Amino acid sequence: RKTGERKNQMASPSSFLLLAVLLALVSWQATASDPSPLQDFCVADMNSPVRVNGFVCKNPMEVNADNFFKAAALDKPRVTNKVGSNVTLINVMQIAGLNTLGISIARIDYAPLGQNPPHTHPRATEILTVLEGTLYVGFVTSNQPAPNRNKFLSKVLNKGDVFVFPAGLIHFQFNPNPHKPAIAIAALSSQNPGAITIANAVFGSDPQISDDVLAKAFQVEKNTIDWLQAQFWENNHN
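The line above is the sequence of Germin-like protein; the predicted structure tokens follow.
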């Protein structure tokens, strides 16, 4: 009996350590996105000198309806750029009342054969619905173990269809119609989702990434990298 008691006592520290690890993992998952609000709202005070992860709350007594409103004219078409798209994002920088609420919205216009080129949102999952036209969309999974390593998942969407792009994964949208534009609305699970357009970031960085590094990474000649870096990498996010 005493031997059994000793074994139970010896096992207790291990059990406690395992419980602590599990709790830490659960806590990490709970804080891996925008923090949940602890009050009804926290309208961003853009003039505060205090720097925090997000924005300091404005005095609730000074809050009014305009802090939750923007005449964004999202029903109006936008002029597209040379890749054939225009992303009009409404995030916390446009509506201060979005602070801590973990959501933003975007209208995306696509010219005929236009695209929203491969990009990621480092802080948000995206759910997109097609309002007009047709879109060919897809995303690529991360460098996880085979057989799911860099798996490409794609779909042709028609008017009214919905598609989800998981947070942080490279994705795109392309309008395959050579004659008609397309329009989509996207909701994103962050007040400030961010966007990293892959080609712009790799070949249009300031200062430039060494062509030795990129030539080795892409397994091409350095003059190919030099040509790509000499292009004008236009931003389609407004």
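Note on the example: Residues 26-32 have pLDDT under 50 and may be disordered. Residues 118 and 172 are 5 Å apart (CA to CA).
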